[in-house]
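Bench notes, afternoon.
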Amino acid sequence: MIKCMSRKMKRSLYVTMTGICAALYALGSYATSYIESPWGVGQFRPAVVIPAFFAIAFGPLVGGIGAALGTFLQSIARYGHPWLTLISGTPANFLAFYMLGYLLHEKFTWTRFVTVGVITLIIANFVCALGVLMYFILTGIFPVNLPYMFYLGFVIGLTLWWYVTMLPFLLFLTPVLLKATAKAIPQFMPEHLIKVSLKREIPSKTLSGVLVFSGIGMAIIGLVMFLPGSEVLVVAYKPGVQQIILNGMRTMFLLTGGGCIATGAAFGILKLFLK
């Protein structure tokens, strides 16, 4: 009887947390929904920290379903219809935060968090960009006879834009939310999240290495964007502002990459004083 009640309480908690996640994500996403990508679709979304927190704290279904519902509701409020998000944002958000929760909910370390966060954002944003391209082709926004490089540049460019604008928030704000909540309401948080310590992981070369190599990768992408032919990434945008947008993307990649390199290097230096 007690076990049955416990299961019901746990189920009720998960349903409640999923609803809260969806509501907060919808509101947070809508708040920045008018800041769009250079292609006029795809939004600036620091609110990704919300479903990331719920996925890690309460599990993959809470994070995945909450993110999918949240972005679905936000899209209806922003655009007045759900058609685009049904084949792009909604499935991609479910995939992203289900993966994040599945890989981190019961196996969380800060090193694992950084690694999984980077990989998850790349995969999910690529899936979302493919969905947007499919919608544009099906609705006739993009003709089916455009050059292959146009489609490729659109998908890669949109993926990179989402990735570089989401990663700093995911990596640096999600841990703050997790630790603050673990201290404020520990009764609702998994025990391992309460006990996990960044200080214990700083001596790990893996944590510093993931940050440094991720940063180097982003910095290299930023530098590659100075090479001839990089204009393909903004080919779907108006010719008059293509160079402005491309310069903005270069700057974002260089700054975000530099930030990750600096953080990883700082951890590497700090570990020398913790030995």
